[in-house]
């Protein structure tokens, strides 16, 4: 049986399909402020609000673990993780200076400050597709 | 800052906190208003202006009436033609509408105003209110990262433990200390004191936070009536002066990712919880008071992490002072010199989101008047402070004092 197609739960947040997925953010050409998901205007209050000042950028796929926890109870819909099992959630600092949320692929031997790498993982599937999101993978 | 005329609280009322599936939010609000009017010995037709808390979970119950709550509540009371605003500032709504009521009277436009909010949030984790995967960041965040409110709090808590050395015992002791007074509060939901062992043996929700270190969600309603200080004596012998009623919003570059957002762009020196520190700074500036002038505090102990983070914030102390204050007993609501959460706190009542700020103001007023019954603090407080913290970077704070 052929492998199911992997489809992002919401399109446009990370590069896909890709062997090395990256988060799709925006950066201000004037002041370098980075925003995820990408925004129409620079978020810096002192920067002008001109759409053309903001460009799409792909974030580095490595970051440092700022903090994390484990979600033990199953959150109510519309979040879906099937079959349900507890999962780690982290805030990660990317090389661009952005702090970003994401699910962790695992929670063994984590240390604040350690390197994590962007990957993807399945949350649920149907007959045709597996539905994926971005995840942070501890890289030691 | 230009000083307007002085304004006092003359009446407070609360519908009890709990689960009230058979009552609508306007019904609960009517009960709270009725109690506040009786407290102020005032008739409904004496209210000149009203502001109401806008409920957040409108896709789950009561729909549009939840957010357009002001006219729905006025219809339940019987309309008297006064100006009404509905205002939604998440968990800081109670404090935000208190500020609006204050401003309505302080400006001189009206002599009396009421802040009222009803909320039915009982029933577990908060969730997004749309399935708009293009523009609803709350929806995008929730389905892609599975971040619940306790998960966010737990991440901040992990970081605090790492940076400051907060221990699991400290986290458990927050619940022990705040719940010891809860059996004496008839308005609260969980009238029970807990031991450290019970807290540490309760199920883990999000590491390191146990079930008993996280506040539940509740139904509840509150009403606060304010009046110009020169007329307050017509209504009460014990007018409680509003020294400050403020709200705060985040500063660009905040180091935390507020709930509903997916990222932040931390800037050097900005720190976390800027909406809260901005709000506290504004409260001290407006009142001319300092942290050492505060005799009693109601803070937003949504979790044990919040208790410490907000005690530091309110006292404008170095991070980590809060743990020392708790260990020393200074902030014990029964025996401490600086009672914190003499109501039993959010941990004991569960959060009725948009009404929560009014629950806190009710407690400050009762304590300042010496009318808190069995839970009356022994320290004869003259100046008291309340702060609430909300979803998506909202905050409110107020400072109240004895005016007699």
Structural class of chain A: mainly beta
**CATH H-level name of the largest domain in chain B... which superfamily?**
Thiolase/Chalcone synthase
Oligomer kind? heterodimer
Give the overall shape of chain A: globular
Major sheet attributes of chain B? 9 strands, mixed
Integer count of domains of chain B? 2
| Computed CA radius of gyration of chain A, to the nearest angstrom | 16 Å
Largest interface: A-B, 43 and 40 residues
- Which word captures the global form of chain B? globular
Spell out the helices and strands of chain B N to C: EHEHHEHEHHHHEEEHEEHEHHHHEE
Distance between the termini of chain B: 26 Å
The proportion of residues in beta strands of chain B is: 15-25%
- What is the CATH class name of the largest domain in chain B? Alpha Beta
What is the number of beta strands of chain B? 12
Strand order of the largest sheet of chain A: 5-6-7-9-8
Structural class of chain B: alpha/beta
Mean pLDDT of chain B: 97
Helix content of chain A: under 10%
Low-confidence residue ranges of chain B: none
Q: How do the strands and helices of this protein lay out in sequence?
A:
The complex is a heterodimer of chains A (140) and B (404).
Chain A: E1 5-8, E2 24-28, E3 34-35, E4 54-58, E5 62-71, E6 87-94, E7 99-104, E8 115-125, E9 129-138
Parallel strand pairs in A: 1-9, 7-9
Antiparallel strand pairs in A: 2-3, 2-4, 5-6, 5-8, 6-7, 8-9
Chain B: E1 7-18, H1 25-40, E2 50-53, H2 63-67, H3 69-77, E3 84-87, H4 93-106, E4 112-120, H5 137-145, H6 149-164, H7 168-179, H8 196-201, E5 204-206, E6 209-210, E7 219-228, H9 229-232, E8 240-248, E9 263-264, H10 274-287, E10 296-298, H11 304-315, H12 321-328, H13 345-349, H14 356-369, E11 383-390, E12 394-402
Structure characterization notes:
- The complex is a heterodimer of chains A (140) and B (404).
- Chain A has 140 residues and is mainly β.
- Helix content of chain A is 0%, strand content 44%.
- Chain A is built from no helices and 9 strands.
- The radius of gyration of chain A is 16 Å and the shape is globular.
- The model of chain A has no long low-confidence stretch (mean pLDDT 97).
- Chain B is an alpha/beta fold.
- Chain B folds into 2 domains: 131 residues, Peroxisomal Thiolase, Chain A, domain 1; 240 residues, 3-Layer(aba) Sandwich (Peroxisomal Thiolase, Chain A, domain 1), CATH 3.40.47.
- Chain B has 14 helices and 12 strands.
- In chain B, the strands form 2 sheets. Chain B has a 9-stranded mixed sheet, with helices on both faces. A two-stranded antiparallel ribbon of chain B has the order 5-6.
- The mean pLDDT of chain B is 97.
- At the A-B interface, β3, β5, β6 and β7 of A face α5, α6, β5 and β9 of B.
